[in-house]
Amino acid sequence: MPNKQKTISADDGFEPSITLGMLSAVEQSSTVTQRKLAHELGIALGLTNAYLKRLVKKGYIKATQAPANRYLYYLTPQGFAEKSALTAEYLSQSFKFFRDARSQCAEAFENCTANNWHRVALSGAGDLAEIAILSAQEFELDLIAVIDPNITADSFLDVPAYRSFDSLVDFDAVIVTDTRRPQETYERAVKDLGHQKIIALPLLGVNTTGQPNSEDHQS
């Protein structure tokens, strides 16, 4: 019996999320263009072309020439299998992220409660902030704000939203929930508010020591 083929990964020069998006788009429409793929996936047209060539070479996608110098793209049986494997892997990682985030948010709120910090703000809107807001319902504390420089609404899941820490008054603690630029957000919070009551969840991988990471020394 042949060994199960390992799904392609970043180690193969592939970003799994882009690969999954590309395989899904081709499955939905064989007439999808490279330009549309690039737009839907949010990547450059040249990178889209490179991914397609790699996936064709891997045997996951078959390309056939159509009139007007266009191509039709089809998933091969290997392509369908790869898409299924990547989907399962993505869902597994998503569930793990949710479990870890929920657990770490609860631990952060327990820490706030133990320190008698009841007025808590979140720094960073997004999936992690949503999980934090959900978790906060189990604790006797008040989520007073979500701070995010890119937010345009006045609230985030019914929590008041602001674009800067200048709008944050009378708070006890700030929990970093920015998954896009967590280090930058943490450092900005420390600079504006001091480090004593700034909490960064472990899953964000934030350096809270004030010492540069080893990669900071690389040119």
Number of strands: 8
- Structural class call reads alpha/beta
Q: What string gives the helices and strands in order?
A: HHHEEHEHEEEEHE
Rg measurement, Å? 22 Å
Largest sheet: 6 strands, mixed
The named CATH superfamily of the largest domain = NAD(P)-binding Rossmann-like Domain
Principal-axes geometry comes out as elongated
Poorly predicted runs of 5 or more residues: 1-6, 212-219
Keywords:
219 residues; alpha/beta; Arc Repressor Mutant, subunit A; Rossmann fold; 2 domains; 6-stranded mixed beta sheet; 43% helix; elongated; disordered C terminus
Q: Could you explain how this protein is built, in words?
A:
The chain has 219 residues and is an alpha/beta fold. The protein folds into 2 domains: 11-75, Winged helix-like DNA-binding domain superfamily/Winged helix DNA-binding domain (Arc Repressor Mutant, subunit A, Orthogonal Bundle), CATH 1.10.10.10; 98-204, Rossmann fold, CATH 3.40.50. It has 6 helices and 8 strands; from the N terminus they run H-H-H-E-E-H-E-H-E-E-E-E-H-E. The chain has helices spanning 16-28, 34-41, 45-58, 77-114, 127-136, 182-193; strands at residues 61-66, 70-75, 119-123, 142-147, 155-156, 159-162, 173-176, 198-200. Strands 5-6-4-3-7-8 form a 6-stranded mixed sheet, sandwiched between helices. The chain is elongated, with a radius of gyration of 22 Å.
